[in-house]
Amino acid sequence: MADVIGPENEADLQAQIEEVEALSSIYGDEWCVIDEASRIFCIKISNDLEEPELTARLQIILPSDYPSRAPPIYQINAAWLRGPERAKLANSLEDLYVEHAGDSILYLWVEKIREFLLERCQSSETAAQPEMVNMTTEEEDHDEDAPDFRTLGLDAELAQLLMDPSHDEEVPPIKHGDAITDRRSTFQPHLAPVVTPRQVKMVLEKLMENKKIASATHNIYAYRILCEDRGGFLQDCEDDGETAAGGRLLHLLQILDVRNVMVVVSRWYGGVLLGPDRFKHINNCARNILVEEGYAASSDEATKPGAKTKRPKGKKTK
């Protein structure tokens, strides 16, 4: 059920708007809006050191009664953050919230995480660690004992929606579309139905088991998950080195109004620069497989009077 904004929430909503505007101004491209309607945001945080560099992603959901009565729901994504270190950082964020209860807290949280990264890099333990690879929100290897979203006991309904493991027992079925080749570069789409962030991670891991896909120059992806109880979407994307490609792919999913699906486009670079044509091929690949699997109408169907975007087909038994 979506939040109802009453008079008692108007001050909180205004405080959230002002805080988000300030954070966007302060952190620039590091600040990302995942779903504005559902108040879901993400920020990439680094330790400001060139060597060694550690990064983390803080994903945040702002409840309707934040900051007056509830803390943000948050998730810290970092492949290197496990066990005691994760618990220590989470406790420090919660202590900050208690200390500043009722106030906007996100800037303090971001800087606390940055301070934590800096301290870790300067510690003697860092020298013994292997080189860290920056991971996306979906690719993070979670500590099994750590919850995905921490809520301080508040807004548990939404947290349960995001953490619900009931759909995660099996990897969703993955479809592979037809490839497009241009000047020795090849683009191939892959599609899977997903209803939780955990399933997104599972699909990526399954794809990476394929040596050919794992060897692709770029594996660009985007997903949209409908949160019916919230009346909004959980969505994100990843360029994987192909700058701006993930955002364009997510924009396509939004235009087609598809839901509960992720699309991955693998590109094998052939040695010839394609310029803007590469984005055309990525989106054409994605559109083709969405049409083939019934998530979107074909171009001909879409131009017919009264045409509507298709919804996912039911699972086929093979």
From TrEMBL:
<keyword id="KW-0678">Repressor</keyword>
<comment type="similarity">
    <text>Belongs to the IMPACT family.</text>
</comment>
<dbReference type="GO" id="GO:0006446">
    <property type="term" value="P:regulation of translational initiation"/>
</dbReference>
<dbReference type="InterPro" id="IPR023582">
    <property type="entry name" value="Impact"/>
</dbReference>
<feature type="compositionally biased region" description="Basic residues">
    <location>
        <begin position="307"/>
        <end position="318"/>
    </location>
</feature>
<keyword id="KW-0810">Translation regulation</keyword>
<dbReference type="Pfam" id="PF01205">
    <property type="entry name" value="Impact_N"/>
</dbReference>
<keyword id="KW-0963">Cytoplasm</keyword>
<keyword id="KW-0346">Stress response</keyword>
<feature type="region of interest" description="Disordered">
    <location>
        <begin position="297"/>
        <end position="318"/>
    </location>
</feature>
<dbReference type="InterPro" id="IPR006575">
    <property type="entry name" value="RWD_dom"/>
</dbReference>
<dbReference type="InterPro" id="IPR020569">
    <property type="entry name" value="UPF0029_Impact_CS"/>
</dbReference>
<protein>
    <submittedName>
        <fullName>Protein IMPACT</fullName>
    </submittedName>
</protein>
<dbReference type="InterPro" id="IPR016135">
    <property type="entry name" value="UBQ-conjugating_enzyme/RWD"/>
</dbReference>
<feature type="domain" description="RWD">
    <location>
        <begin position="18"/>
        <end position="120"/>
    </location>
</feature>
<comment type="subunit">
    <text>Interacts with GCN1; prevents the interaction of GCN1 with EIF2AK4/GCN2 and inhibits EIF2AK4/GCN2 kinase activity. Interaction with RPL39; this interaction occurs in a GCN1-independent manner. Associates with ribosomes; this interaction occurs in a GCN1-independent manner. Associates with actin; this interaction occurs in a GCN1-independent manner.</text>
</comment>
<dbReference type="InterPro" id="IPR020568">
    <property type="entry name" value="Ribosomal_Su5_D2-typ_SF"/>
</dbReference>
<dbReference type="GO" id="GO:0005737">
    <property type="term" value="C:cytoplasm"/>
</dbReference>
<dbReference type="Pfam" id="PF05773">
    <property type="entry name" value="RWD"/>
</dbReference>
<dbReference type="InterPro" id="IPR001498">
    <property type="entry name" value="Impact_N"/>
</dbReference>
<dbReference type="InterPro" id="IPR036956">
    <property type="entry name" value="Impact_N_sf"/>
</dbReference>
<dbReference type="GO" id="GO:0140469">
    <property type="term" value="P:GCN2-mediated signaling"/>
</dbReference>
